[in-house]
Amino acid sequence: MSNERRDFYYHTPFLEDRHLDAKPPPSIHGFDPSSYMSLTECLHGSVDYNSLAKAFGLSPSSSEVFSSIDENSKPVEARDLDGGNSTDQIPATPNSSVSFSSSEAGGDEDSGKTKKEPQPENPEDGGEYSNKKDKAKKKAEKRQKEPRFAFMTKSEVDHLEDGYRWRKYGQKAVKNSPYPRSYYRCTTQKCTVKKRVERSFQDPSTVITTYEGQHNHPIPTTLRGSASAVFSHSMLAPTPMSTGPISFPHHQEYSFVQFPAAATSHQNIGAYPQNVNQHLHQQYQVPDYGLLQDIVPSMFFRQEP
DNA sequence: CGTTTTTGACCTGCGC
DNA sequence: GCGCAGGTCAAAAACG
User: Fold this and answer.
1) Cβ of residue A226 lies below 7 Å from strand B
2) CB A237 within 7 Å, strand B
3) Per-residue pLDDT tens for A59-103?
4) Dihedral sign (CA A163, A167, A172, A178)
5) How many C-beta atoms lie closer than 10 Å to residue A74's C-beta?
6) Where is the region Disordered (predicted)?
7) Which nucleotides in chain C lie less than 7 Å from some protein C-beta?
8) What is the pLDDT of residue A114?
9) Distance of CA A3 to the CA centre of its chain
10) Is residue A168 over pLDDT 90?
11) How far is the CA of A288 from the C1' of C4 (A)?
12) pLDDT given for residue A159 in this prediction
């Protein structure tokens, strides 16, 4: 019924809430600003978001910011993203950066299986009806647990190489956006990590990538293309097993936002005034590659010819 | 020929 | 209950 979760949001005006389709978290307090991890770990889900912020050059004090997020404060604008009306309140800096958002949660695994894949679970359930309902329930629950990380990258290509192999399993038109959203799934067996990729309608040069779940395997070594070579280079340093390197081959700047996981309540955690937005944006902007370079080799930052 | 992408249909959640 | 929008499936097509 209630899975204890710690939901954290890093939020910049860049990352629209909808990408996490998360409801406002009951609370975003309670994270433990003490450990340190890399973006790699971040992708793996075992992250300390505060550290993540640090890792990306975010002031630790930005934790205040976390509690300032309120998706409900402007549900329409945030949702519609159509910029047609109130776009001016989202200062989409032309010199866009990467926003990173995430939501942590315990479980994961397999939220993708919905209908047509009869999963051998609870054979004792008896009736198919109950089975169905049960599935739906479980699915719903699980869906909320998925840890997510979203970030925005300035890139000309939609699908950014991150070292893993992905298979596209869907594409959908996004309301109020001329750009479709693509759905990818990690091709590694038993890995249920998914990611969504879409282009910001506000800044077409910006690609919004949302990772969902955590890789439970090392980076495939049989990567086609250059990614594998690139990855073996450095990003995987920390842990042999935890590997979630992200490569950003095509962009220049990043800013990260952390989002709350899907919460179960509709509580607002506070107002999210525009001036805070701006403040946030500043804070989350990575001026140069600075700290990020610790994690991402400079070669990732090469610019598109 | 195996793998990935495309794409229309289907399912689910949510707001009205 | 209905309609909308997001998310997923899976058959067919495309690709290497």
Assistant:
1) no
2) no
3) 333 333 333 333 333 333 333 333 333 333 333 333 345 555 555
4) positive
5) 19
6) 60-148
7) 4-10
8) 37
9) 20
10) yes
11) 42
12) 73
- Confidence label for A189 from pLDDT (cuts 50, 70 and 90): confident
What is the distance in angstroms measured between the alpha-carbon CA of A163 and the sugar C1' of C11? 29
pLDDT per residue over A220-263, tens digit each?
655 444 444 343 333 333 333 333 334 444 433 444 544 443 33
Q: Which nucleotide is nearest to A144 (CA to C1')?
A: B13
Question: Strand C footprint at Cβ < 7 Å?
Answer: A 18, 21, 111-117, 169-175, 181, 183, 185, 194, 196
pLDDT tens for each residue of A123-160: 333 333 334 334 434 444 444 455 677 778 877 777 77
HEC assignment per residue over chain A: CCCCCCCCCCCCCCCCHHHHCCCCCCCCCCCCCCCCCCHHHHHHCCCCHHHHHHHCCCCHHHHHHHCCCCHHHCHHHHHHCCCCCCHHHCCCCCCCCCCEEEECCCCCCCCCCCCCCCCCCCHHHCCHHHHHHHHHHHHHHHHHHCCEEEEEEECCCCCCCCCCCEEEEEEEECCCCCCEEEEEEECCCCCCCEEEEEECCCCCCEEEEEEECCCCCCCCCCCCCCHHHHHHHCCCCCCCCCCCCCCCCCCCCEEECCCCCCCCCCCCCCCCCHHHHHHHHHHHECCCCCCHHHHCCHHHHCCCC
Q: What would the pLDDT profile of A27-58 be if each residue is shown by its tens digit?
A: 333 333 333 334 444 445 444 444 444 443 33
Asked whether residue A195, judged by its CB, lies under 7 Å from any atom of the DNA or RNA strand B, the reply is no
